């Protein structure tokens, strides 16, 4: 039997899936559950960080699979292809999860800052207004650093996924020793791309941790 909270969660998820048409209801329901936009932003930044950590591990696994080409010598090519294909599919799924989570962070941050600005204009006390605006601007600056790091990490996934897909399809069409030799010659390039991606992911994760330390 579904609990009221489960039903609410399903409504929220379905509501937020709509292209902006139900965002007001989404926030209203969360507010009734005691969560303001700042809480939702914090939750989604944490989730984006976690998604990136998992994606980083998945791409590391793909790199491990590819490095097997160095020592490949007459093994089961079909088995190698299957494992590489599975690794690519997992990377693709993780990349999509990261992209979706970053999109949620972007939307909530935008809505939060609009609301914050509007509420500042309602404050009549000059001192309170100045302090609130300073807090808003500081949060925007720190969010901008986080956002830039997240988007850079997101962009870094694209060339890796493209190269992995090339590897998978080429191997699928050419399950022979010559194909292995051709792929082995390209391994260094994708190694560098994955290493750069992991570095960008780590930077984004670090920025998320820094943002969360000071964001209330």
Model description:
The model has no long low-confidence stretch (mean pLDDT 87). The chain has two domains: 1-35; 36-214, Up-down Bundle (Four Helix Bundle (Hemerythrin (Met), subunit A)), CATH 1.20.120. The protein has helices spanning 4-17, 23-32, 37-71, 77-120, 126-173, 177-214. With 216 residues, it is mainly α.
Entry keywords:
88% helix, Four Helix Bundle (Hemerythrin (Met), subunit A), elongated, single chain, 216 residues
Describe the structure concisely.
By secondary structure, the protein is mainly α.
Which CATH class of the largest domain applies here?
A: Mainly Alpha
According to CATH, the fold-level topology of the largest domain is Four Helix Bundle (Hemerythrin (Met), subunit A)
Dominant shape: elongated
Q: Say how many strands there are.
A: 0
**How many DSSP H or I helices?**
6
**What share of residues is helical?**
over 70%
What Rg is obtained from the alpha carbons, in whole angstroms?
A: 22 Å
- Report the uncertain regions: none
CATH architecture of the largest domain, by name, is Up-down Bundle
Strand content: under 5%
Order of helix and strand elements from N to C terminus: HHHHHH
Tally of domains: 2
Estimated structural class = mainly alpha
Largest sheet: none
Distance between the termini: 36 Å
**What is the mean pLDDT?**
87
């Amino acid at each position: 039997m579904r609990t009221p909270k489960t039903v609410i969660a399903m409504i929220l998820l379905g509501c937020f899936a709509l292209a902006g048409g139900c965002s007001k209801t989404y926030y209203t329901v969360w507010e009734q559950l005691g969560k303001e936009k700042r809480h939702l932003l914090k939750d989604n930044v944490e989730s984006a960080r976690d998604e990136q950590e998992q994606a980083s591990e998945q791409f590391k696994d793909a790199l491990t699979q590819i490095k097997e080409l160095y020592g490949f010598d007459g093994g089961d090519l079909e088995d190698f292809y299957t494992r590489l294909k599975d690794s690519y599919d997992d990377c693709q799924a993780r990349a999509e999860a990261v992209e979706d989570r970053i999109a949620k962070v972007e939307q909530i941050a935008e809505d939060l800052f609009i609301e914050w600005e509007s509420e500042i204009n309602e404050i009549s006390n000059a001192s309170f207004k100045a302090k609130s605006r300073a807090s808003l601007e500081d949060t925007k600056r720190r969010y901008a650093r986080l956002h830039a790091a997240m988007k850079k990490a997101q962009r870094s996934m694209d060339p890796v996924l493209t190269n992995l897909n090339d590897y998978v399809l080429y191997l699928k069409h050419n399950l022979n020793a010559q194909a292995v030799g051709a792929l082995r010659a390209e391994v260094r390039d994708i190694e560098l791309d994955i290493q750069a991606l992991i570095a960008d992911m780590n930077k984004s994760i670090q920025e998320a941790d820094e943002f969360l330390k000071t964001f209330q």
